């Protein structure tokens, strides 16, 4: 009888030990799931914090800038803006620098591309390439031009903010680098358009 009791005691102890090990293993899995859940919620919490920062910071700034620049356009007059655009479309130096700058500054993205109406058909692809490439570089100085994609500038500026460096010099250099890039892109696209048109026998 004592042998049977000893075996039962041993069996119960074995079951208890295996149960504790199983609980420990389960705790490890549950712990990993809890960590994953915490990270997942934390990701959305970080997004919510950024959104709150936008609502209290950049969004009012963009609204005020949009209001100010639409007021400027109305005061200057749409006809004067159009005349300036026609002047800028007149030669290759201003066609892929000043014209995209005026278009993006006054009309913002995506209305900026409508300034292509002042150009001959053969120049429109190159103008579009210049204008679409210029909707990011001015964001440091003029966030109203493309508020939907402010994250591009904010991502660039974040590193400087963490180092407590001023953003003004970077914003100016970003804008100037953008002007150089869009001018080069405009020239290259104009050449490519003419080359492909000749190759395919298209009259421009």
From TrEMBL:
UniProt cross-references to InterPro entries, sorted A to Z: PTS_IID_sorb
GO BP terms: phosphoenolpyruvate-dependent sugar phosphotransferase system
GO cellular component: membrane
Keyword Methyltransferase: no
Transmembrane intervals: 50-76, 96-115, 174-197
Superkingdom of the organism of origin: Bacteria
Signal peptide: none
Pfam families for this protein: EII-GUT (PF03608)
Iron-sulfur listed as a keyword: no
Keyword list, A-Z: Membrane, Transmembrane, Transmembrane helix
PANTHER family associated with the record: PTS SYSTEM GLUCITOL/SORBITOL-SPECIFIC EIIC COMPONENT, PTS SYSTEM GLUCITOL_SORBITOL-SPECIFIC EIIC COMPONENT
Name of this chain's protein: PTS sorbitol transporter subunit IIC
Organism of origin: Rubrobacter taiwanensis
């Amino acid at each position: 009888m004592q042998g049977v009791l000893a075996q039962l005691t041993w069996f119960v102890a074995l079951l208890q030990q295996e149960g504790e090990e199983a609980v420990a293993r389960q705790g490890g899995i549950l712990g990993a799931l809890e960590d994953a859940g915490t990270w997942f919620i934390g990701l959305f919490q970080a997004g919510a914090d950024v959104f709150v920062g936008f609502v209290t910071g950049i969004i009012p700034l963009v609204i005020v800038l949009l209001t100010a620049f639409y007021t400027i356009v109305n005061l200057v007059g749409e006809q004067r803006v159009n005349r300036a655009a026609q002047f800028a479309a007149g030669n290759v130096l201003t066609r892929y620098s000043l014209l995209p700058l005026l278009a993006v500054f006054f009309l913002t993205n995506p209305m900026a591309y409508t300034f292509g109406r002042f150009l001959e058909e053969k120049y429109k692809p190159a103008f579009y390439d210049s204008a679409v490439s210029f909707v990011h570089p001015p964001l440091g100085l003029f966030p109203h031009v493309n508020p939907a994609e402010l994250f591009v500038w904010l991502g660039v500026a974040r590193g400087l903010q963490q180092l407590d460096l001023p953003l003004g010099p970077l914003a100016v250099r970003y804008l100037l680098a953008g002007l150089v890039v869009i001018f080069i892109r405009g020239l290259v696209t104009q050449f490519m358009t003419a080359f492909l048109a000749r190759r395919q026998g298209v009259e421009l």
